[in-house]
Structure formats: C-alpha cells, structure tokens
Amino acid sequence: MPRKFDVLEHELVPKHVLLSKEEANRLLKAMGLKKSELPWIYSTDPVARALKAKPGDVIMIIRQSPTAGESVAFRLVMRG
To answer: Its GO CC terms?
Structure first.
C-alpha cells in the first residue's frame, strides 16, 4: 500500500496554523484590518486542503528567518 504524502511535514513547507473564528477576529481587530485586506490563499492549495480550511478562514504562516528569527504572515482562504 503506497504511503500518503503529508505536505505539512515537508521540510520546505513552513508551519501553517488554521485560526479559529475568534482568534482571527481578535487578530484583525488588533491589526486594524478587514479580512478583505489580507493576502489570499486558495482553498485548493495543498496546505489549505491538508488543514481542511474553508473560504473565509484565516491561516497563520510561521516561517523561520535568518534575519528576523521568525516571520509571521496571515492569509485569507478564498474559493479556488
């Protein structure tokens, strides 16, 4: 039986976290943003699929950075 590939475990894929509605609302309020102002990630993206993200959800992406130590970005899941 073939092994299933888990995109979230790949060494080149940064950590992705699906935020709850409450977490997303707190984040947007703290940053003074509307959901529509966030960059997009499509619901068909392999990581969004792995997280079972739905359009309207917000994903936090945590990347390791040689200069900043850690870089955090947010994406709005869009139908795609």
So the answer is: cytoplasm; DNA-directed RNA polymerase complex
